[in-house]
Amino acid sequence: MIRAKICGITHVGDALAAARVGADAIGLVFYEKSPRAVSVSQAREILQALPPFVSSVGLFVNADPAGIERVLDDCPLDTLQFHGDETPDFCRRFGRPYLKALRVSGEEDLRRPVDDYFDAQGLLLDCAVAGHWGGSGQSFAWWKLPDLGKPLILAGGLRADNVQEAIRVACPYAVDVSSGVEQSPGIKDHDKMVQFMAQLQGF
């Protein structure tokens, strides 16, 4: 069964709605330039309301280590997701499970990162868009993802009307959606979340 993360959650109500529709994880963005950024206090409130068995992922972009540590002091995140130019040593210094996001255009973008980030829980593949660290809402040309011994998570431009095709072509371990289930940046559309998750049935 394919897993799903709904990212860019900024409100308790949206987190609870994501859990109700069957999301395996929610993503909280700790990148202040993002329209989906949350403060530590917002994140804490969301995490306190989150029901059991829904994982929390904190997204960071070239963040200061001390800043990440301050977030972790107050927010019991399950997994860290690094979306910038973070080195493998940087990603593993916090002693937490982590995902490394890669901005890709083809299979050649995967070989070295799989070796470099050998201890990552998984690699998240997003569309390479100039000036964006993710959340652009654009997709790349999907291809059959290779078996590299590590979970590969598909992101970038996924919506209810294209996620089945993306899964059939790429065969990822999981999918990650943000803008595809929104009313506006950071505000989720609960009907779109229902429709998106319904498309994952049977995979």
What does this structure look like?
By secondary structure, this protein is an alpha/beta fold. The protein has a single domain (3-198), classed as TIM Barrel (Alpha-Beta Barrel), CATH 3.20.20.70. It is 28% helix and 22% strand. The chain contains seven helices and ten strands. The chain has an eight-stranded parallel β-barrel. The chain has a two-stranded antiparallel ribbon with strand order 9-10. Strand 5, helix 5 (111-116) and strand 6 form a beta-alpha-beta unit. It is globular, with a radius of gyration of 16 Å.
Level-1 CATH class name? Alpha Beta
As laid out across the biggest beta sheet, the strand order is 1-2-3-4-5-6-7-8
CATH homologous superfamily assignment: Aldolase class I
Structural class: alpha/beta
Morphology: globular
Rg result: 16 Å
Contiguous low-pLDDT stretches (5 residues minimum) are none
Total DSSP helices: 7
On the 0 to 100 scale, the average pLDDT is: 92
The figure for the number of domains is 1
How far is the N terminus from the C terminus? 5 Å
Helix content: 25-40%
CATH topology, anyone? Answer: TIM Barrel
Q: Main sheet?
A: 8 strands, parallel, barrel
Enzyme class: isomerase
EC number: 5.3.1.24
InterPro entries: Aldolase_TIM (IPR013785), PRAI_dom (IPR001240), RibuloseP-bd_barrel (IPR011060), TrpF_fam (IPR044643)
Pathway: Amino-acid biosynthesis; L-tryptophan biosynthesis; L-tryptophan from chorismate: step 3/5
Could you list some keywords that capture this structure?
10 strands, alpha/beta, TIM Barrel, 203 residues, single chain, globular, 8-stranded parallel barrel
